[in-house]
Amino acid sequence: MCRETKREPAWVSAIRLAFLRGQVTVDGVMDEANLPTGYERTVQDVLSTMADRRLLESVGETGDRYVPGPVLIESGRFDLDYTKASDGGAHRWHSSG
């Protein structure tokens, strides 16, 4: 988490989405990581690299949606208790001003 910009790396958000929602999209990562418009290509590159490394698998005809790949699945993290995980992302900061 970068405290100055209130953002986190795209790969962290992608893994969180893969575990909590079962799928990852560029828009989802943009929202989860609190990234401003203009970072879509960078996020797509990150997701593509994660797919190359088998952390994610591209699905669908357009290749814009990913699901957990064998490396994440075999990491044994799917049996953890996510009932107390933040639905909106633990990194989200809400300012009052």
Uncertain spans, ≥5 residues at pLDDT below 50?
Answer: 89-97
CATH superfamily: Winged helix-like DNA-binding domain superfamily/Winged helix DNA-binding domain
Largest sheet: 3 strands, antiparallel
SS element count, helices: 4
The string of secondary-structure elements, in order, is HEHHEEH
Q: What would you call the shape?
A: globular
Overall mean pLDDT: 79
The total number of structural domains is 1
**What is the radius of gyration?**
14 Å
**SS-based structural class?**
alpha+beta
Could you tell me the number of beta strands? 3
Which fold does the CATH topology refer to?
Arc Repressor Mutant, subunit A
The portion of residues assigned to helices is 25-40%
Amount of beta strand? 5-15%
CA(first)-CA(last) distance: 21 Å
Biggest sheet strand order reads 1-3-2
CATH architecture designation:
Orthogonal Bundle
Q: What is the topology?
A:
Blueprint (H helix, E strand, L loop, with lengths): L9 H12 L2 E2 H7 L7 H13 L3 E4 L5 E4 L1 H4 L24
Antiparallel strand pairs: 1-3, 2-3
Helix pairs in contact: 1-2, 2-3
Can you tell me about this structure?
The chain is an alpha+beta fold and 97 residues long. The protein has a single domain, classed as Arc Repressor Mutant, subunit A, CATH 1.10.10. It contains 4 helices and 3 strands, in the order αβααββα. Helix 1 crosses helix 2 and helix 2 packs across helix 3. The C terminus is likely disordered.
